[in-house]
Write a structure and sequence with these properties.
single chain, about 350 residues, alpha+beta, Elongation Factor Tu (Ef-tu), domain 3, OB fold (Dihydrolipoamide Acetyltransferase, E2P), 3 domains, 6-stranded antiparallel beta barrel, 4-stranded antiparallel sheet, 5 helices, 14 strands, rod-shaped
């Protein structure tokens, strides 16, 4: 090709390139100094649920991906053993309650009458023994000891003492029957009843804890055990992802901190739907500087010190997932004018 022809073509090409660059710059809007774009990831809180007892799992009701609401029944343990213990405890409480009522009621009229009859019989026996001893003693005194043997006189004296002691014992028994049980015995029986009731409450608590309920609205992320497995407080059964609130963690340089305030509005976009922005607000600003995480793509150097921001996202359509990359757009607060001296 003739060199004279190449020179005009090159000049035309340069002119066209320059015109294209000028047109692109003219159509591209200038960066807004009052807006800020941050890059981060979706953060969803999780909770691990476990039974607070060691027993075989009898039933699990939900699977991975199921939505659950606060209070929903998720699973149940085998409760046959604890129900038998509860019935045994109820029987013990009934028996102890009757014992307390019997002590508080005191002696029955029939028991007091029986004690009075025993006193009367013992006193009659004592009176008879006293008379027999008196006759033998009188005979012995009248005959200078020759009319009654010493052995008969000692036996009559011994029977007299025994009868008197028995009569005194009968009178004490009557007094106890009239007075009724001691306050200490009643208090002891009441404490035993309270102990049995506490044992029943403990067993009932174990029955209640044999059911696993959702503590909040969430989505089942993992089902870790199956019916027939031995559950324990150390073995989680489900892992739940808390759907509300959702967070986006992003990082900002120190130069932009003065224009950020907790509660300011923001918008969150994801790569699959960049135009469908989700409303959010700035929830918290970290008070500690850190190095930019390697998973965060920002125009700044990765080794720059930044501050973590947590944005609360109103994800009503449940589009965000744990760990998903997200872009945060927000308007910065105006910079305060320096005070005049």
């Amino acid at each position: 090709m003739n060199k004279k022809l190449l020179l005009p073509l090159a000049l035309v090409a340069v002119a066209l390139a320059a015109g294209a660059v000028w047109a692109w710059r003219a159509q591209t809007p200038a960066a807004d100094p009052d807006s800020l774009t941050l890059y981060g990831n979706v953060d969803i809180r999780q909770v691990s649920l476990a039974f607070n007892a060691s027993e075989r799992i009898a039933e699990l009701r939900v699977q991975e991906g199921d939505k659950v609401h606060a209070g929903d029944l998720l699973g149940r343990l085998d409760r046959r053993t604890t129900r038998l213990r509860l019935e045994q405890s109820q029987a013990q409480i009934g028996a102890q309650r009757q014992a307390v009522q019997r002590l508080k009621a005191g002696s029955r009229p029939e028991e007091i009458a029986q004690a009075r009859a025993s006193v009367a019989a013992a006193e009659a026996e004592a009176e008879l023994a006293d008379r027999q001893w008196a006759r033998l003693q009188a005979t012995s005194d009248a005959t200078a000891g020759r009319g009654v043997s010493r052995q008969d006189l000692d036996s009559a004296a011994a029977r007299r003492k025994v009868a008197q002691a028995q009569a005194e014992g009968a009178r004490k028994a009557l007094a106890l029957a009239v007075a009724g049980p001691r306050r200490e015995d009643i208090a002891q029986a009441e404490q035993q009843l309270a102990s049995a009731q506490a044992e029943q409450a403990l067993i009932q608590r174990q029955i209640d804890e044999s059911e696993l309920h959702a503590p909040m609205d969430a989505v089942v992320r993992a089902r870790l055990l199956e019916p027939g497995d031995m559950a324990s407080p150390q073995r989680p059964v489900y892992t739940l992802a808390i759907t509300q609130p959702k967070w986006v963690r992003a990082w900002v340089a120190e130069a932009d901190l003065p224009r950020l305030q907790p509660g300011m509005a923001a918008e969150v976009a994801i790569d699959s739907q960049p135009a469908a922005r989700i409303a959010a607000r700035l929830g918290a600003i970290s008070s500690v500087a850190e190095f930019t995480p390697k998973t965060v793509q920002t125009p700044d150097l990765r080794t720059s010190l930044v501050y973590e921001l947590r944005f609360v996202v109103d994800d009503a359509q449940d589009r965000l997932r744990l760990g998903m990359p997200a872009t945060v757009h927000l308007r910065l607060a105006p910079v305060a004018a320096p005070a005049r001296p």
